[in-house]
TrEMBL record:
Pfam families: Hus1. Keywords: Nucleus. GO terms for biological process: double-strand break repair via homologous recombination; meiotic DNA integrity checkpoint signaling; mitotic DNA replication checkpoint signaling; mitotic intra-S DNA damage checkpoint signaling; nucleotide-excision repair; telomere maintenance. The keyword Nucleus applies. One of its GO terms (cellular component) is site of double-strand break. This is Checkpoint protein. It is found in: Nucleus. Belongs to the HUS1 family.
Length: 216
């Protein structure tokens, strides 16, 4: 197991290079220090492929420290919702971070999503989406409980409840700006007033990014 060195290498340029890559190979090598070697195959102007190399310094972690870096189990979410394209969210967040320090992400099981900021001038700006795919996990639990109790008719579920969390808008902006490659699906999991977990789903990979709620 290896951990990237903060500030080491050219991570930003690596992502820019990989956007047009045909293939990517990653291996651990030793130069002056241990490095992750990224061999990126690209098409050249002449039509022939060429290889571009990037070396990212890393620290090698001994096996006794591996348990410290295991993925922690997810908390019990109140709601999960599929987000619209990253580009649309990034445009709004980048504009609003000039006027506010925090942003509230609010959603319900019907598929309504709201991104809100409150300005110091007491004005409120809201971006709204409707008809997104969403799941209220409390409703799912009620369905399971009703089946377990062998209830003849499905119980009436309460109206969709909104769940939200307020987070640092600059940290959310960093997440949205770092995505050079568009994920297949972009999901937000909400624990009410506690945290937001963003999950970027690709064909063969999954990235998680958790933002704790800010106490205003």
């Amino acid at each position: 197991m290896a951990r990237a060195t903060p500030g080491g290498g050219c991570a930003g340029s690596n992502l820019n290079t990989m956007v047009l890559a045909r293939s990517l190979k990653i291996k651990l090598v030793r130069r002056k220090t241990p490095c992750l070697a990224l061999e990126i195959e690209q098409a050249s102007v002449t039509g022939r492929s060429r290889s571009v190399w990037h070396f990212i310094p890393v620290h090698i972690l001994p096996p006794r420290l591996w348990p410290d870096f295991e993925d922690t189990p997810d908390p019990e979410f109140d709601l999960s919702i599929f987000l619209p394209p990253v580009r649309n969210l990034r445009l709004f967040v980048d504009r609003m971070k000039r006027f506010a320090r925090f942003i509230t992400v609010r959603a319900n099981g019907v598929g309504d999503l709201y991104l809100e900021i409150n300005m110091e001038t007491l004005a409120r700006v809201r971006l709204t989406y409707h008809g997104l795919r969403a799941r209220n996990w409390h409703q799912e639990l009620e369905k399971k409980d009703s089946r377990a109790a062998d209830v003849g008719a499905m119980m009436d579920l309460p109206p969709a409840t909104e769940f939200s969390a307020t987070v640092d808008i600059r940290r959310l902006s960093q997440l949205l700006s770092s995505q050079r490659i568009q994920p297949n699906w972009f999901v937000c999991n909400i624990v009410n007033d506690h945290l937001l977990q963003f999950v970027l789903l690709f064909e063969n990979a999954r990235l998680k990014y958790t933002l704790p709620a800010s106490r205003l």
